[in-house]
Amino acid sequence: MDLSPLISLIEALGIGAFALSGVVEAKKKGMDFVGAFTAAFLTAFGGGTLRDLILDRHPLVWIGQPTYIAAVFLIALIASVRHALNGQLYAPGRLVDILDALGLGLFSAAGTSVALTSGAHPLVAIVMGVVTATFGGVLRDVICNEIPSIFRTSQLYATCALLGSIVYLLLRVTALGEAGASAAAIAAAAGLRLLALRHDIVLPF
Amino acid sequence: MDLSPLISLIEALGIGAFALSGVVEAKKKGMDFVGAFTAAFLTAFGGGTLRDLILDRHPLVWIGQPTYIAAVFLIALIASVRHALNGQLYAPGRLVDILDALGLGLFSAAGTSVALTSGAHPLVAIVMGVVTATFGGVLRDVICNEIPSIFRTSQLYATCALLGSIVYLLLRVTALGEAGASAAAIAAAAGLRLLALRHDIVLPF
Amino acid sequence: MDLSPLISLIEALGIGAFALSGVVEAKKKGMDFVGAFTAAFLTAFGGGTLRDLILDRHPLVWIGQPTYIAAVFLIALIASVRHALNGQLYAPGRLVDILDALGLGLFSAAGTSVALTSGAHPLVAIVMGVVTATFGGVLRDVICNEIPSIFRTSQLYATCALLGSIVYLLLRVTALGEAGASAAAIAAAAGLRLLALRHDIVLPF
Predict the structure, then answer these.
(1) How many C-beta neighbours within 10 Å does residue A91 have?
(2) How many of the other CB atoms lie within 10 Å of CB of A56?
(3) What DSSP state is assigned to residue A149?
(4) B chain contacts of residue A57, beta-carbon cutoff 8 Å
(5) How do residues B68-96 score in pLDDT, each as one tens digit?
(6) Which pLDDT band holds residue C6 (cuts at 50, 70, 90)?
(7) Subunits with at least 3 CB pairs below 8 A relative to chain A?
(8) Which letter, b or e, does each residue of B145-171 get, where b requires 16 or more Cβ atoms within 10 Å of its Cβ?
(9) Residues 95-124 of A with CB under 8 A from C
(10) Is any Cβ of chain C less than 8 angstroms from the Cβ of A200?
């Protein structure tokens, strides 16, 4: 079974969910459209950009994807105009949580994969998986002048990225292959994330 | 008509205006000379540095310009000592506004130009023009622990950078050439910026 | 006399002291383990990472040192668990001050050395020495949502890094050689830092 169209779909939906969370944070802080677009862009592409700068991979992932840039621009524009017209935000609800969780799993697997391909030590590859999945949100919170939410009592967000990275690392050399390992990582990370959200599970220390 | 000496002059004055805005923000926050110099440096060179890291262009622009580093150091030193002696800052006045606006236009054109030369898609090149012109100020505000002013109700700052990038992009392949397109971009961006400052125009959303 | 084992020891102890200061700041801010580890990692490796990105040196220094990553992980884990159990932090005391001061001197010398080897102008090399020694702490404070402490009234922290960089730069071409110049830089920077801490000396402007 070819999983790559499914994974491309998850990528697109995950980028959309990440971008939307950037707009929502920016608007909560009273930013204008420029701030909303920047926050959306950083959340969507910041983690992958940092990973690629660290690993010296060029061109950066979004440089070759003007379609994604345009999509993030449209998300920021529509949400900003809507907010200006009726004061409403697309508040993260159940659907956005699910898309965000799927993106979290995919980006942790993809980050680990890219690092391993670059010849990184497995321990470094796991760090890169977590960075790819989570640092977009860290940058979003830094420009919103907040302590990054994943460093406070978030519901296992970074822990789920860590789980996704480890699952991918362990399974990629099995019969599951690249796509199968990614799918398993997405399932594990997204499953734990949604469980943690539902039962409000946080790290004990 | 050879415009390059004029453009070099605008570059030097723009860097000076950017550095001064860094010192002023740092001193408002009670920083010492180390903070003032760092803020000045980040404001003056941060946008170009980020652009070059993203596009993998090395050496970075300021690496080869010790004269500019020394100039930024002197600006920070003189303004800090003056502030310590009589509590006064070189508050951004009309002249600094004009120099800053000219720098804004030039750096947006230069950022777009560099990105296009690197083979970037026009949409990416416009993003790079805006990043070059504005992210120095974003980094300044981040280390000053403020929400970046261009994300709040600033008077079309980023919008003027966007205008400069687009004007440059459209005109560079015309008979105006590189320098003519840069001059037009500077005029458009600086003109709109000074108009927005005078009439306190902000984005409606 | 071969000084390199001594310098390797100082490097390890300095990284440990830097990592510990990251954990302490994170815990003061109420962060969980993810935040504590990230703050420890940024403090320990952030300065060297920024230097290497600026100078385009790859792989980054920590990419090839999984042992150091594991050590920083353990420091963050032990300090976080201890904090959770009895509410105590390894507050920076006299010993940590000394290790931190030695690390400050070493990293300023090492940063200057790396930049000179990359062919940088001496003025750029001094900036890189200061960046290497101090920007880990800057990044720590940024994600902790504080104005970086070295930009406020810290006891000559960045000034000591500047002294270390200059001492190294002046002595490396003398009979002292690389290791001797590094040792002198460490002694000068750490000595001034401990003196400034003891007598609470801050910059006058």
Answers:
(1) 9
(2) 16
(3) G
(4) none
(5) 999 999 999 999 999 999 887 766 678 88
(6) confident
(7) B, C
(8) eebbbbbbebbbbbbbbbbbbbbbbeb
(9) 120-121, 123-124
(10) no
For residue B170 the two structure tokens come to 């459209």
Characterize C166-191 residue by residue with b for buried, 16 or more Cβ atoms within 10 angstroms of its Cβ, and e for exposed. bbbbebbeeebebbebbbbbbebbbe
Contact A35 B152 (CB under 8 A): yes
CB B131 within 8 A of CB B50: yes
Q: What is the value of ipTM here, to two decimals?
A: 0.90
Q: How far apart, in Å, do the first and last CA atoms of chain C sit?
A: 42
In a 3-state reduction of DSSP, which class is residue A76?
Answer: helix
Query: Sign of torsion, CA A55 A59 A64 A69?
Result: positive
- Could you tell me which chains touch chain C, where touching means 3 or more CB pairs under 8 A? A, B
Distance from C-alpha of C95 to C-alpha of B119, rounded to nearest angstrom: 53
Sorted by where each begins, the domain ranges of chain B are 4-199
pLDDT of C168 above 90: yes
Subunit contact A84:B142, Cβ cutoff 8 A: no
Give contacts of C35 with chain A, Cβ < 8 Å. 147-148, 150-152
Q: What letter does residue A87 receive in the DSSP assignment?
A: S
Q: Give the residue-averaged pLDDT of C122-141.
A: 96
Per-residue pLDDT at C123 exceeds 70: yes
CB–CB of B138/B55 below 8 Å?
no
Q: Long-range contacts of range B61-66, CB-CB < 8 Å, 24 or more positions apart?
A: B62/C124, B63/C54, B63/C55, B63/C120, B63/C121, B63/C124, B64/C121, B66/C121, B66/C123, B66/C124
Count other C-beta atoms under 10 Å from residue A97's C-beta: 17
B91/A contact by beta carbon, under 8 A = no
Tokens matching residue B52? 């070059």
**B31 and chain C in contact, CB less than 8 A:** yes
Q: Is pLDDT at B2 greater than 80 in this prediction?
A: no
10 Å CB burial of residue B66 (0-12, 13-18, 19+) is middle
Which among A15, A19, A28, A21 is positioned nearest to A145, based on CA atoms? A28
